[in-house]
């Protein structure tokens, strides 16, 4: 028996005043109850009961343990109930991390619909383009754009991401026309996303192989959102996810280029730590991801409204 089992057996004996009555109540033999009490007394090096052939009673030390262990067992039972609720009913805190670019997609409505369906879940969304350590920072679920180097994480593919270069029609006209190869972008004004710890670069797919283009951007930013705005103002070329520029392209504000050179292995992933023993809230969110994918695909198929720069 573990310590809690021993204390539970002790309290039962103290209440009933009998090893045999305790044994019947717990569905074990009297000898098993006696061994549990003997083991507990050996652990404390104190006698806990006065024993007779017909009855037992608490010693002074036993009385102290009985008085103080009741609150402990109540707390344990309450905690077990709360943990059981977390395991069986979606509730409690769910920590999620996502890159800034996903805030402009169907992710916020997805989380809103999830909260409507599971009102006992509290969502804590960490928005960052930094690769967060799930274990170290207490994150339950991460949305990431691959690759995922940590082989210990569980990875679910959600959506393939297509990339495209885009600039205003006037920009293409005044800069020699649309490029035919990624190398042609070396001489263009580049509006580039950059990670704080990396030199800016764009990655293409040329003849089935990755092709990296080092950049010297006229505007670099650690967030994707301003890049499309500046591209619509005619200040340069943006290379990014097709979903992020689909609206301006449909409105004629931007013209796409180099669609054939989009990487073929870039996906949006959902990442979590283990398959078993996850909370009911996390399991419900994982089940909810199919709705996110469906909403994303439907929105991508629709013409986005034009917006003012």
Structure, explained:
- The protein is an alpha/beta fold and 309 residues long.
- It folds into 3 domains: 3-88, Orthogonal Bundle (Arc Repressor Mutant, subunit A), CATH 1.10.10; 92-160 and 266-301, Periplasmic binding protein-like II (D-Maltodextrin-Binding Protein, domain 2, 3-Layer(aba) Sandwich); 163-261, 3-Layer(aba) Sandwich (D-Maltodextrin-Binding Protein, domain 2).
- Helix content is 41%, strand content 23%.
- The protein is built from 10 helices and 14 strands.
- The chain has helices at residues 3-16, 19-26, 30-44, 60-88, 107-117, 134-137, 169-174, 225-232, 242-250, 280-301; strands at residues 49-51, 56-58, 92-98, 121-127, 141-145, 154-160, 163-167, 190-193, 201-206, 209-214, 219-221, 237-241, 255-257, 267-272.
- The protein has a 5-stranded mixed sheet with strand order 4-3-5-14-6, covered by helices on one side. It has a 5-stranded mixed sheet with strand order 11-8-12-7-13. A two-stranded antiparallel ribbon has the order 1-2.
- Helix 1 crosses helix 2 (19-26), helix 1 (3-16) crosses helix 4 and helix 2 (19-26) crosses helix 3.
- The longest helix is centred in the first third of the chain and has 29 residues, at 60-88.
- The model has no long low-confidence stretch (mean pLDDT 87).
Write the CATH fold name of the largest domain.
D-Maltodextrin-Binding Protein, domain 2
At the fourth CATH level, what is the homologous superfamily of the largest domain?
Periplasmic binding protein-like II
Order of strands in the sheet with the most strands?
Answer: 4-3-5-14-6
CATH architecture name of the largest domain: 3-Layer(aba) Sandwich
Structural class: alpha/beta
Note the overall shape: rod-shaped
Strand portion? 15-25%
